[in-house]
Write a structure and sequence with these properties.
The structure holds two protein chains of two kinds.
Chain A lengths: L6 H23 L1 H4 L17 H8 L1 H34 L5 H9 L6 H15 L5 H26 L2 H9 L4 H29 L3 H6 L7 H11 L4 H25 L5
Helix pairs in contact in A: 3-4, 3-12, 4-7, 4-9, 4-11, 7-9, 8-9, 9-12
Chain B lengths: L31 E10 L2 E11 L4 E5 L6 H9 L6 E6 L2 E2 L10 E4 L11 H11 L4 H14 L15 H13 L5 E5 L7 H18 L3 E5 L2 H7 L2 E6 L2 E6 L1 H6 L4 H6 L4 E9 L5 E5 L2 E5 L1 H7 L6 E6 L5 E4 L8 E14 L2 E7 L5 E7 L13 E7 L4 E4 L4
Parallel strand pairs in B: 3-8, 3-9, 6-7, 7-8
Antiparallel strand pairs in B: 1-2, 1-4, 4-5, 9-10, 11-12, 11-14, 12-13, 14-20, 15-19, 16-17, 16-19, 17-18
Helix pairs in contact in B: 2-3, 2-4, 3-4, 4-5
Classes of the chains: A mainly alpha, B alpha+beta.
Chain lengths: 265, 395
């Protein structure tokens, strides 16, 4: 470390860094104290301390069913997207077929195409298919949004994996299925789990597509929040936000742990 | 040692002492037969018509520069690549289109290719599990295989906890534990340092002989090939230039490429002339060298064709410029430019009058060991039978 990194210069860097972190986190974190307010309306700074809005979140049927629906959709999306995305990543990294680049671009397109457009498209199609406003419809839609994350994560694991290991397995008598189950999958597992976590989070806090594809009887938590905020500004929204935030943060920490556990290193 | 092998099925006729190159019981099928093997990558041929037959228990090395097709050939035998044409027969059955996992062939990779998420013992157990062996048999065979490579206490270690040499020995144990019909090795010692490489060369020889394994070995290291192999196939541009024992290749190279690739050579280029007696002459300017009958017959060149005489550095004697050269010897004038001491040997670098470089190696013992100073004008002489005639495709 050179001299210029000491003293005032270093302080300035720390201050700039701190400001950046504050800028990124403040809008999110301001909601946390607001969820513990005693007041009847959403306000900052909060008054007093109370857990009543958390209690409300669990007891109010609208909020609690929203939470249940969100969890159902996110879990099913994570499973479906992980299975499909892993298979797609295998095909896209290992396969040699015409139009591979085009298929790759198509699979990753949900990252680039504006969500509203995807939402409108899916809405018109799903209405025809009569799966709009249902669990299955939203899971399918969220799976499409989550697929790129799985494909990218698993694809990276597959590309960094030593191909000789698969050849060695075949040489030692393992057919392609057993090679995948015994060798490839255990080695790329951190990538697969990372993809699953990303898929869960993608679905868990997705609101745009969910607004189009949910109904009054079937709402997810983010949609419920959207509806409530438009009518009453009730501090329960802050409690729900904080809950979403805690779940997402916990999952990201888990992701961090998973990535460091790579067995190939 | 033999006791430790109890659980590992032998693939060949028996210990090395019993097998000898050239000996072949009547009716025994060759372990591997390659016929007209070709592999095209686009318009370019990586392997361009390889024919090879390997006896059971034989150790054959594919030797050649990188890109000469030796690794591609090995990968086709393993089944990782399909040949464009030609056939592969293992133990009498056609394997050309059989997937690798049904070929029953063991392979050792250059980078070891041990499974990182399994211990050494689990790695060795893998091929046995794939063959659905019983738990007790697997346990026994894994222990035997670990003992065979002298790593009996290392079964619980993960590959990352083992040194490069230890990893390669585990890879060897894994490749032989299921008694494969053929053992393939793709530059298995390429990533190791010299000392370890030499120790492992001996270990591989011992292990393969104890098991009587048939080995197809790939390397670009000629010394390794000479040390380890019963026979060596010299690869050049996708074909086998010459197939023979190390001695065959060194003493009787069949091409300029082989002469140049194996060992050090003095190559005298010129034009070939037959004589009536079955031998011939190589002429170059005012020089004329006699070609022995045996060598002339092997090369079977026409009068007038461009050719070269190959003479190994240790077959040449240095005599004074005015000394009488024996009638049965060839000679050429030269000037000594360098004198190098290589321990037991002394090596001279020389320049011929036309500027071509030459090398002579002398053992530093006894009478032959007269020392010549740098700058001295001398004559080089060699027995007619020590010159090997080959065609000169560049001439």
């Amino acid at each position: 470390m050179t001299e210029s990194w000491r003293g005032p210069r270093r302080l300035l860097m720390a201050a700039l860094g701190g400001l950046t972190v504050f800028y990124l986190l403040a809008p999110t974190l301001v909601i946390v104290p607001m969820s513990f307010t005693e007041a009847k309306i959403l306000s900052f700074p909060p008054q007093g301390f109370s857990l009543q809005w958390y209690q409300r979140m669990f007891t109010d049927p609208q909020w609690s069913s929203g939470m249940l629906h969100s969890a159902q959709v996110a879990v099913l999306t994570a499973i479906l997207a992980t299975v499909l995305g892993t298979l797609a990543a295998l095909g896209l990294t290992r396969g040699r077929f015409p139009g591979r680049t085009a298929v790759n671009a198509l699979a990753l397109s949900p990252l680039i195409v504006p969500v509203v457009i995807i939402a409108i498209g899916m809405f018109s199609l799903f209405v025809q298919w009569r799966i709009s406003g249902s669990l299955i419809g939203l899971v399918l839609a969220h799976t499409a949004l989550a697929l790129p994350f799985v494909i990218v994560n698993v694809g990276t694991s597959l590309r960094t994996m030593d191909r000789n290991l698969e050849m060695a397995a075949a040489n030692l008598g393992a057919d392609p299925r057993r090679t995948f189950m015994r060798i490839t999958l255990p080695i790329i597992l951190p990538g697969v789990l990372a993809g699953a976590i990303f898929a869960f989070i993608t679905s868990w806090d997705e609101v745009v597509v969910a607004i189009f594809l949910t109904s009054a009887r079937f709402r997810t938590l983010p949609v419920e929040m959207w509806e409530q905020v438009r009518q009453v500004v009730d501090p329960t929204v802050a409690a729900v936000s904080t809950t979403l935030l805690v779940v997402t943060t916990a999952l990201l920490l888990l992701l961090f742990v998973v990535r460091r556990q790579s067995p190939a290193r | 040692m033999t006791a430790s092998l109890a659980g590992i099925p032998s693939t060949g006729p028996g210990p090395a002492g019993e097998r000898q190159a050239g000996e072949r019981p009547a009716g025994e099928r060759p372990a591997l037969v390659l016929r007209g093997l070709r592999k095209l990558f686009g318009p370019a041929a990586a392997v361009d018509g390889v024919d090879l037959e390997i006896r059971r228990g034989e150790f054959v090395t594919l030797l050649g520069p990188s890109g000469s097709g030796k690794t591609t050939t090995l990968r086709m035998v393993a089944g990782f690549m399909a040949p464009t044409s030609g056939s592969i027969e293992i133990d009498g059955s056609d394997m050309t289109r059989v997937p690798p996992y049904r070929r029953d062939v063991g392979m050792v990779f250059q980078n070891y290719a041990l499974f990182p998420h399994m211990t050494a013992a689990q790695n060795i157990a893998f091929p046995l599990q794939m063959r659905r062996k019983s738990r007790s048999e697997i346990e026994k065979r894994v222990a035997d295989a670990l003992a065979l490579v002298k790593l009996a206490k290392f079964g619980d270690r993960y590959p990352r906890q083992l040194s490069g040499g230890q990893q390669q020995r585990i890879a060897l144990a894994r490749a032989v534990v299921f008694g494969p019909r053929l053992l393939l090795m793709d530059e298995p010692l390429g990533a190791l340092d010299r000392k370890l490489r030499e120790a492992l060369q001996l270990e591989i020889i011992h292990v393969s002989r104890e098991l009587g394994a048939t080995v197809l070995y790939v390397t670009h290291d000629q010394e390794e090939a000479l040390v380890m192999s019963d026979r060596i196939a010299i690869f050049n541009a996708g074909r086998i230039d010459q197939l023979g024992s190390g001695e065959d290749l060194y003493d009787r190279p069949a091409s300029l490429f082989v002469a140049d690739f194996i060992g050090e050579s003095n190559i005298l280029r010129g034009q070939y002339e037959r004589d009536g007696a079955g031998g011939g002459w190589l002429t170059r300017g005012s020089w004329r060298w006699r070609v022995g009958r045996a060598s002339a017959e092997r090369a079977a060149l026409d009068t007038g064709s461009p050719a070269a005489l190959v003479v190994r550095p240790e077959r040449i004697r240095i005599v004074g410029s005015n000394d009488q050269v024996p009638a049965e010897a060839n000679s050429v004038e030269a000037a000594i430019t360098d004198v190098l001491y290589l321990g037991s040997d002394r090596k001279y670098g020389l320049t011929l009058p036309d500027g071509q470089r030459a090398a002579v190696r002398q053992q530093r013992d006894g009478a032959a060991g007269r020392e010549w100073p740098s700058g001295e004008r001398v004559q080089l002489t060699w027995s007619i039978d020590d010159g090997v005639l080959v065609a000169d495709p560049t001439g």
